[in-house]
Amino acid sequence: MSSTIESVPLPESIRLINHGPTVMVTAAHGGRGNVMTAAWTLPLDFDPPKVLAIIGANSFTRELINASGEFALNVPPQALVKAALGVGSESGRDVPDKFARHGLKTFAAQKIAAPLVEGCVAWLECRVIRDANTAQNEKDYDLLFAEVVGAQADTRVFSQGHWHFETAPDELRTIHHAGSSQFYAIGEAVKTA
């Protein structure tokens, strides 16, 4: 089953994270890129699509985001759980190239400078919203409000605005962090009709 990546219409893009997956956050500025894992991201609005990400003010990724004003949310599947744990367990200040250290390859985003992680099943390209309403929350609570400016997904698991985990191999199921080094893969669909 070969991978095909297709653009996702922006009003549907928040569906890529509305089920609460762990994400890899990528950022770049001044010739330096970084990747970290985050479990606290959520959709805020459909059109224009907005997301909220909680990223510590002292992290190297946050430093790059503050400088560039943009970041990407990469949704890793079960096949990348070890890399997700690894990049979330060390700082880009201590490890100059976390991508190489954890065997992650990247490709260019369509709308932002931050790289996208190959092997993920969805990608959201985000620009930080900075105004009087968001500035204090960003400072006090490490909340980053962002508009999604580009989105893509692997059609083996997401197409026509919906996830299709039931027809994809288990290694393509998204992962969900439950604390420490414990992750779970998304489960079976529940029929409602």
From TrEMBL:
<comment type="similarity">
    <text>Belongs to the flavoredoxin family.</text>
</comment>
<dbReference type="Pfam" id="PF01613">
    <property type="entry name" value="Flavin_Reduct"/>
</dbReference>
<dbReference type="InterPro" id="IPR012349">
    <property type="entry name" value="Split_barrel_FMN-bd"/>
</dbReference>
<feature type="domain" description="Flavin reductase like">
    <location>
        <begin position="15"/>
        <end position="165"/>
    </location>
</feature>
<dbReference type="InterPro" id="IPR052174">
    <property type="entry name" value="Flavoredoxin"/>
</dbReference>
<dbReference type="GO" id="GO:0016646">
    <property type="term" value="F:oxidoreductase activity, acting on the CH-NH group of donors, NAD or NADP as acceptor"/>
</dbReference>
<keyword id="KW-0285">Flavoprotein</keyword>
<protein>
    <submittedName>
        <fullName>Flavin reductase</fullName>
    </submittedName>
</protein>
<dbReference type="InterPro" id="IPR002563">
    <property type="entry name" value="Flavin_Rdtase-like_dom"/>
</dbReference>
<dbReference type="GO" id="GO:0010181">
    <property type="term" value="F:FMN binding"/>
</dbReference>
